[in-house]
Every structure is written in C-alpha cells, then in structure tokens.
Amino acid sequence: MTEQAPLAPPGIFKAYDIRGLYGEEMDETTAYAVARAFVRVLGRLREKDPSDLRIGLGRDMRLTAPAMAKAFREGLIDESAGFLDAGMVATEMLYFLVGSRELDGGAMITASHNPKAYTGIKLVREGALALSGDAGIGDVRREIEGGIGPPRTRGTFSEEVDVWDDFHRHVLSFIDPEAVRPQKVVVDGGNGMGGPMVGPILEQLPLELEEMYFVPDGEFPDHEPNPLLEENRRMIIARVQESGADLGIAWDGDADRCFFIDGDGVFCDGDFVCALLARAALAKNPGATILYDPRSSRAVPDLVEAEGGRSGLSRVGHAFFKQRMREEAAVFRGDVSGHC
Predict the structure, then answer these.
(1) Residues 107-132: tens digit of each pLDDT
(2) Which of 243, 268, 293 represents a domain boundary (last residue)?
C-alpha cells in the first residue's frame, strides 16, 4: 500500500485512541500505518517477535469502517502478525475477544460517539488493557514518524471469528434474571452497535422493551450517537414520558457507554449512576474498593463510605482507570461520561 502525506497528523493521536475526520485527517493509509506501528509496539510490550503475535480486530457500523479495517488487516499482514477478525462488533465485544482468547492485543475500528464524518482506532494490549497517550499511543505515533519502511515477510495466520453467541452467553452468566423486576424500558441504540449487542441480552429478562434506532446505520439518520449531548436524548426522553416507561437507556455509537433516563424523563447524571452501581457492588463485595471519576460530586464517596466500602479517585479515561482497577483490586469504577 502506497503511503501518502500527511500519513498521520499529530492531532489524531488522542489520550485514549486515534481519531479524526475521514479523508482530511486520516484514511486507509493511516490505518495501514497504525497497524504496522502497533505490531512493533505490541511486540516490544509482549517481548515477542511480530510473527508470534495474535491480535483481535473489530469494526463498527460506520460507512468507512470496512475499508479502514481492510487496510488495517493489510498492515498486520505486512508486519507478519497473526490476527482474528471479528467483523462488525461493538467495542466491548472486541475487548471480550482479546480477553477470552488470551490474545496479545486488539484493535477496534471506530470513532465511538463522534459524528458521521469521523473515523478512528482504539488499541488494546493483552487483557484488553487500553493503550493511552501516556502508554502506547505515543509510541505508535513515533513509529510512524520514524518511517514505516518496506513490508516484512508477510504473515500467513488469519481467522474470521464469530464472537456474538459467546459474548451473549458470558454476559448472561453473571445476570440473575429472577432478580430483575418486570418493567417497561425504552432503549435507544442510536443506530450504533448497542442494538445487536444488548438487545438479545435484554430479551432474556422480564422486560417490555420499546426499541428506538436499534438497527446499525452509519448514516445516523435520526441523531448523532452521543447521548451525553442534550439534543441527542430529547427523543428518548419524550418516548419515556409518552409511553409511561419505567426507564430509558441510550448507548453511544460503539456501545461502550450507556446513559439512563428515569421514569419521569429526567436524565441521570453519571456520578449518581456510579453511586447506585457502587451500592450494588458493595452488597456483593462488602468492604471492597470503589474507584470514581474526579469530576463526580460527593455523592459517590459519601455513599461508598456509608455502605462500608473504600473509595478512591482515578484519572479520567477508561485507558487509565482499567489499569488502576487492577492495581487496587477494585470491584467497580464509574465514570461521569458513561464508562463503567
């Protein structure tokens, strides 16, 4: 694949991922270069030859995602790494693939909650630990800036995998359907990956579901896939109020964040959701550690203390708090932006 300048402008390298406007800031040439650089960085982290690496690959429903994923695959092959391609999945499913198959790392082609014009790549190492601007993403950038060079001996190992059934079984394994009371729930997939990822799970619970925009569509014909913005949740709020539902749930584009609307149509702030989930976690794990977002109100640490747990702040961003959770043996960490 021919490299074109600018191959990877500095502005696309974010704190938690690589993301930019498709065609202006990044395209297939960027995806190819990132893949090759990622293999080199991952090889050093894992102390493995690139040909011994096994990498998971997934993409979301964005219109540019198939071409971006194809270019990324070419980069993996030209750097001699092996990979398992899960096709179109949600980000959490790519993480599940990496963890459950004990892969060396993974890449998700997604621009998450951003508008249609964007594309991007999320990168993780073993255990689905995210690369960040502090650890890994900067190394990928430097590899590209130093010159990708000619292909290595092309890799030969690749496999297409279907993780849908395994993922759904895994999630249902830690849910007790009898503990869920019957209720009416409005669910807004935002034409992202939330519908196919969560729908089959919710159908196994005693819920009356009213689905909105549950079919993936990279055109995003109804609203942008970012429920954190008020204009993107007006429709679900109205539907909850009109239908008399008990609850509303909305997901972002790649379905790694969700947001809640109560039965009165009031948006539930992320720190209060964190506090409620912390209470549930402490009921199962008395005295455990709960980590929380420094942007949260006192509701979180005060509730954790009242429930007999130990609370601690952790840096914003899933790339950082997942590592901190392992270091602290925390049972839960909440984020005001919807990551949990």
Answers:
(1) 999 999 999 999 999 999 999 999 98
(2) 268
- Domain range for residue 15? 10-165
Identify the residue whose tokens are 């696309």: 12
Tens of pLDDT, residue by residue over 41-60, are: 999 999 999 999 999 999 99
Give the residue from 268, 300, 319 where a domain finishes: 268
Q: Is 132 tagged catalytic? A: no
Q: With CA atoms as reference, report the closest residue to 128 among 167, 99, 162.
A: 99
Q: Is residue 45 part of a domain?
A: yes
Give how far Cα 28 sits from Cα of 22, 25, 193, 254, Å: 9, 11, 22, 20
> β-strands 118-125, 18-21: how paired?
antiparallel
The residue annotated as part of the active site, out of 80, 112, 311, 314, is: 112
Give residue-wise pLDDT tens across range 249-305: 999 999 999 999 999 999 999 889 989 999 999 999 999 999 988 888 898 999 999
CATH assignment at residue 188? 3.40.120.10
- Asked if 75 and 85 touch (Cβ cutoff 8 Å), the reply is no
